[in-house]
Amino acid sequence: MHASRWILLLLSPMALLVFSEIAAHENSARAVGSDAVDSCSKDDLLRPTRKPSRLVGEEDPALDRFCQSPDALPTRVDCAPTLTDTVAVRNFLPPPVIVANLPHLRLDIVLTRMENQAVSGGGISVDPEDYYDSPWATWYIESSVSTSSIPAVGDDPFGLPVPPNPGEVWDNLDHANALYQGIIENGCSASTVFDVSLDSAVIRYDGATLGDVLLFDEVVGTGFFVFAYTIRATDEDGAVSDFLFSGDARAYCTGQASF
Question: Where along the chain do its domains lie?
């Protein structure tokens, strides 16, 4: 499986979004969270893992132009930012060791993989000539304890096109995939609870909802995590697909108090 790049071609003012070389299709699906250990979380969304994850991506000028183009995104949907900063190992040390210099707690949640699996009726697919027929996923994550976050409270959800045809897998996503960045000021503690709620949906470009989920979870202190969840979506003709989403998260102490 090789590293992916997204190529976005703005073909007209109404822009047909073309993803090519977006992700190697896995012949054998990765077991999401195979490095995870047991967790007592609410919805078991964020599962601790011993293996540090690669959450850092690269800025893409073509994607930036797309996100700023009129009518490129569904109404009231924004592009997510891209994480570009690495985090030193010391930021994950036990909080009593580093709290004097890094007093705040930060949580980053990043999407890395999307999959479209047919369930019935051939699954949900898209007319490649009709941009407005394309299915999208949206994400809105918030926390009751964060003092600063991206998105901020009341912001529009983040969104991306999803694999448009059954059997497609987009892996190694590394642009516009930072679904959440949150900070608890003066929260660097082994006992600090960082709760999150995830409101996620699969929609048509016109905003029609095909399926959605609302999930709650929390992490305690610092560490690395994986997440995975499924949205079962039904289109206007009764075709059904399971859309699988997964990625990585990290909680660490930082000197940054706000965004």
Answer: 46-254
